[in-house]
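Researcher: Here's the sequence for the chain we discussed earlier.
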Amino acid sequence: MEGRIAIVGGGPAGMMAAIRAAGILGGGERVVLFDKNDRLGRKIYLTGKGRCNLTNLRPWEEFATHLHPNQGFLKQAFRAFSNEDAIRFFESIGVPVVTLQGQRVYPASLVAGDVARALERRVRVSGVEIRYRTRIASMSDLSGFDAVILATGGKSYPVTGSTGDGYALAQEAGHTVTPLFPSETALLPQPYDPGLPGLELKNVGLHLFIDRTPVESDQGDFNFTEDGMESGIAYHLSRRAVWALCNGQKVEIVLDLKPALTLEKLSARIVRDSITVRKDSLRSMMPEALIDPFLRANPGITAAGLPARLKEWRFRIVDYKGYERAVVTAGGVNLKEIVPKTMASRLRPGLYLCGELLDLDGDTGGYNLQIAFSTGALAGASAARYLLSLR
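Model: Thanks. This is the structure I predict for it:
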């Protein structure tokens, strides 16, 4: 009997691995895909706020700056299946795409389910055997397979089945798992003014301070929600903020409401326009709904002190939202134990690992799905070639 490949996990990385392996083997009869759910790609339905930000079209040199903690690890997988390859692939399976602000690529329908269903159809057409509602509890459950691909995802959005099973399987195979923590998640300030949730700020600056030292900044949009500072640039800063909180460090976010103006130019404008700290006067400085929270956060503020407070509204961050809301899991299988050219385990022949299971994650903007597609495609191709080499 010819050898077979087991793929554990039917998310974006696992489906891409199955499709690529079946293509190289000339059919999917030797590929078995295991998933705990009754359909594949459940997490995809939630991505991009239900729109599915498939990838980002930035060239590798820019793309890599949005990866953590090892930018170079993905380079060979990205070259083997790039963002442009991803676009061509999805269009070939009936998912036309559109590129929006920030080089973010979405299905033209802006419906995430279209992506998940198209991928599942392609897996089926490839002839891959899909075993739904099947949980792999131990590597011994896969003893009848010649090659194994672990593509179980991380721990974020556990309602979709991402409950971290793959970390235990990787450890059983001898791998090291670096500390895990939620990333791209809401950061909760204290005190948190009840007037802030529901506000969306446009083109502002955020600066992250850890133990009073500035470590990271970004400019753009974000929301105040019931859970704290969320989405956009707040997500970008959340990775380092959460790690610092996990390590007992003091975390502050400084909000700059006027990032396009220096303190000096802002002061001159306030004097020129005779802006005071009255509500009607502050409407030219910030959204009206933000005025009361701003004044409550700065009691006794004078016109002279207004420019500094507009540039430096400080929030002490005391907590964060966990895996139930986090976009991605940071940490994972140690990259030093993975061959970046093939996604093969350095410790166990015939074992391949890919996707969110790895200690590799990206910022919001399509980077994490591209990590899944690139590493999944490479793992599937490598496992298939390994199988062929056993003849």
